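Troubleshooting log. The previous structure file for this entry was overwritten by mistake, so regenerating from the original sequence record. Sequence copied from the archived sheet and checked twice against the printout by T.R.
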Amino acid sequence: MKADQRRHRQRGEPRPRHPPRYYTQMSRFFLNGEELTADESIEFAGAAVMKQFRRGSKVPSPGELPYLFCGNGSCRDCNVLVEGLPDLPCCRFPLCPDLSLGTSGSSGESSGEENALSRIVAPPRLDASPWPTSIVVVGAGPAGLEAARAARDAGINDVDVLEARLMSLPAVRSPEPALVLDGELFCLRDGALVPLKWKALIVATGAFDRVHSFPGSTLPGVLPMDLTERFADRSFLPGSRFLLCGGAERAGRLGECLEQLGAERVIVASQEMILASARGELRVSGARLVASDLDKRVLPEGEVDVDVDTLVVEGARAPSLGLVRALGCETDYDRQLKRDCAKVSAQGSTTIPGVFLAGDVLGPANEDQARRSGHLAGVAAARWVASGT
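Regenerated output below.
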């Protein structure tokens, strides 16, 4: 390096400036037309947006980010306009260089419904009066609803269920998303942050498909299968030409649903084909499949190039731990399962007193297993409240 600097001085050229040892690369993206930057270590667009609009001057670590609670694209409360495509969840959308995002109310664009994220970008007012309740359940899937039922059966009358999915169940206050700011739980209601004053909290935020890494996996248009299933449940098409890579039965059901919704083209990859790469610039424009044998070893023949704009990939199921971490609950990496797991007791209690977990957030489970863990968490939470600890 010193020799390089001497040569530049002899030539009368400016001295080269070398980046510091721990230099962090920044990625540019656009939000409502405004140019912003984010640390390239940030994987998803939602995390980058949250860092930009966090209340206060401190830049938090990923575990401290305000968290739109579902984290798997089911709640629609972080949906944005992405490169002209409406209603895509930025919590799970890859942060790519020069990605253009728009929220509700952005000038010259229509990005769909107002939601929790659009209220954060235009920071919501804080409602000083807390919402008192004995038990709050976050998540209205099988585990969350069973946890609420078990708690009520155990004698706790004021049990409130928050759920991001747009549902009309009598027991669910919907759609009132939960957020965590500085370790405290809030509910967004009518554009205001309402602090939740709870005695016990049950987190049943489920699990999601974690897409494996492959060339082009971060392109807009690469979506996990569970997210696409939720889109289809709401009669929303995130694209027009689909390639589905996953289990034959699951991919086949989703493919039929997409065709009924009017997809231009749906291709279900056979079990003998392996997804090798995706191509495209601003978003997916195609994918390459290669043939494999029964042991998933690539064969020299049988390469197929497919012209699609949406690539749907079934991934390994991983617990949705964003809300758990934001609350300060401890997690550990499980070497056998090869994923992060929350530290919990047999009854689902975490390292934070009064916080319990239930369902897929403990690890992927079937519906019966989710209900059983919900029952245990509901009973344990009711005992915690009754003890007055």
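The chain has three domains: 26-123, 126-207+318-387, 212-314. Archived copy saved in two places this time.
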